[in-house]
Structure formats: C-alpha cells, structure tokens
Specification:
- By secondary structure, the chain is of the alpha/beta class.
- The protein is built from 16 helices and 18 strands.
- The strands form four sheets. It has a seven-stranded mixed beta sheet with strand order 13-14-15-12-11-16-17, sandwiched between helices.
- The longest helix has 20 residues.
Length: 490
Amino acid sequence: MNSQTSPIQTSATLPLWWLPPGITPAIAREDRLTCGVCLLWPEVTPALLHTAAHAVREAQTDLKRRPVAEVIAGLSAAAARWLDPAYPLRRMAEQVLPEWTGFAPDTVRLELKRLFRSFRVQELWRFLAEDFANPAVLDTFVPGPHGGLRKAFGPPLIWHVLSGNVPGVTVWSLVTALLVKAGSLAKTSASEPVLAPLFLQSLAEVSPGLAACAAVLPWPGNRTELAKVASAEASAVAVYGSDTTVAAVQAHLPAHLPVLRYGHKVSLALIGREALTPDRCSDTCQALAEDISAFDQQSCMSPQVVWVESGGAVDPQSFAARLAHALRQWGVRRPRARLNETEAMAIQAFRTEHEMAAWQDPGVHLWPDGEAEAPWTVVFHDSPVALPTPLFRTVRVCACPQLESAVPQLQPLRPWLQSAGIAVHPARLLHISDLLGSIGVSRVCAVGHMLRAAPGWHHDGRPSLADWVHWTDIEWTAERGVERYDPDVE
C-alpha cells in the first residue's frame, strides 16, 4: 500500500557531510530538489581531510575505553529513532532518496525499515557473536581456551570508499567500524551521499561521543590527491564498488595497509522441481521477482541468473513466462529507477542480441515480446548458462536437467560468485549448498530473501568484524612469570 509523506519545508537544507564538532567546510555547490530540500555539497580539500582524520583519531581514544555494550546501546538508540515513521530525519530520507537515486518511494521506505531493524540491540549482539565467541575481548583481556589472555583491538581509523548503488551499505560499513571501536573516514559516492550523514546526525542526538568517531565527505573518485591523503591517514581500508574502482583505490595504498575489498559479484537462484508444483510455483515466482526488482539488481546479492530444474509440474520455459508476468506486476507496484543513457543502451543491446538469437535458436525466448518500453527483461535458455546481465531487472532463466549435476558449470565464475537463492526439497539443501560452497558461493538463502542478509553474515566469505582487529595475546608464561615480582609471593 502506498503511503504519503508530508512535504518538507522549502527552507530545509541537508549537508552531505558529517564532521566531528568544530569542523565546518566551505560550500562548493547547492542542489535544490523538487521535494523542497537543498543539498549542500562541501568543498573537500587535503587540509580538510587532515583535520577531520586528526579529530576522529582523537575521539577514537575515548571510544577505545567505552564498553562494547555502551556502543551497542548508542547504535540501537539511534536505530530506534529511524523506526518511527514520524522521525524528521527518516521523513527527509524518504523524500530525498527517491528523487536523488530514482528508486521507488515504497522501495526506499521498506528497505529503510529493514535496514534499521538490523541495528536493534539483540541483532547487534548476534552480529558480534558471529566473529567473537566472547565479545568482551573488545573491552579487556579475557582468558583464552589454552591459557593466557587475549584482547582484540580495532584500528584507529578506517578509510571507507563507499559505493552508491544501494542505500544502506554506507551505514552498515560505519556500524561495523564502531562495533570494533574504530574511527571512520568515509568517502561517499555522488550516487548516494545522503544516508550516511543523516544516520550520524541521529547518532549524535543520542551519543555525541560515538558520532564524533566518524567523518563523512563526498568527493569524486578522480581526486587522486585526496585519495593519497586519506590512505596516508588510514590504519585500514574498506573498498566497495566495481573491480575497476577497487583497483584504482588499491593503486594509492601503502603495501602495509590492511584492505577489505568488496568488488563486483554475481548471484543466482536455483529452483528445484519441488518448487514447481501448481500450488507453489506462483509464490516462487513472486518471491524471485522481489529479489530481482528490489534495488533493480544493483545489490551484489541480486540474482542475475535463474536455473530451473526440468521434470516439475511447470516446465522451465513456462516458469520463465510466469516470472515475466510477476516482474510486470512488480513494475507497477514499484517502478524501476530511471536509467542513464549508457544503462538504457546496454539493455537495448542485450534485448537485440537475444531477439536475433531467438530467431535462429528455438531454445531461446525473450520477454517482453513487443513491449519496447517494458522495465524488465527475461531471457529463456534451454540449457544452463551463467553469463551476467546488464541488470535493472534483466534476468536469464535456464532449463537444467538436474541442479546437482549443473552446479560445477559455475566454476569459471568462482572469483565473482556470492549469493545463491534456493528453492528445493529439504533433503537436498545440504548437498547442493556443499556443491555451491566448493565453487565459491559464500551465502545460501531462501528465494525471496536474497537481499536480506542475516546480521553477521560472512560478506564475500570473510568475517564482517574479525578481519578489522588485531589480537594481543598475553601468554601463560607472562602471567606466571610476573608472580615472582610480587613482594608477597610465596
């Protein structure tokens, strides 16, 4: 159901930065949106980055002394504000993000709620528990299982190079840093510079000390002088984006810096014959259409390829036709984001290629048929293929004699595989998941939940938090050895 948000006053301004107290940048430009908000872009200079990084490191010295329970309390209190539909910053995000990103208002509204539900107290503790059996290791030295003591230390300053394809990634990255008591210097993308500063503003309302441990600034990726400053100030780096973006950032980094790279990934769905019965097929198609439509496949978790097993009550080509119908319905409920010229040309070229293929090969079929302006594309292949698509609700559906025997064909995509949505009989889940894991898939979930990763999931197969920390071990010899220096020793 569509809901309306009250218009924002025409005088509203939104600074697209967040800086520790006492630092104010010059304004480089203003963009006034039709929703009434004026976006303020900062003038980002090397001197500003130096100043911001120094202030964040100063604030992080206090963060190191805070119990992790206090950090979680602050983050969850900020998230609770975002779960109130009347919260002014949420209302601003719900009006600005659709206009700036092109995503449907209902999509933004729903995904914001899902995002901030992930930051409730119990979810954040689960997030920590995935990587730290005893989260107290972030506060103090705790006994190890084989004697001695150990403690985990987050880096003083993480430089986050954030992508703008999916709102919310920016907030997740900042939250992970705070959970390991690290400071943050974040470069946002011009595609989505909005949510990170708004979230930190809400965090400052409930915990000014936590919010002071982050600085967020937008600047173009070709500002190499700024990248050099940021990398020199950082103790660790997180890079999100295309493989080209990751490589460009890597070129400016000192060899000693720890780097977490989140580059280009491909996800897929596997539909077993058990999901193709008349009473289940419609629900399966609707769930898959949601995975494809949400954020227009801009997430690395969105499926681009669907393998459908033969032998079910609904054959794979008929399933493709039903999926096309479901995507048409989703296009009405949540319209696709606007395309730039390059994106539109890529989709048109993809359609033209497969229209020609369909004329020559009866095993290929294309939907929509004759609807040039349809905001979705389905291509059916009568055998498994694993080629990516130009995204924006463009998907391949492939017939597959048996899922288990076809999975090894994904091996060439191993470096890029990420999530697999699955709809099969329970007895097949573990075996198929084992096959998927062996060729590089790092996450298996239900169809319909592909964009809803669980807190603490192993992003690209790596720990979400543990990779940030370094450990200090006090060995049992030190524990026992210092006893001799106690004047009251036996």
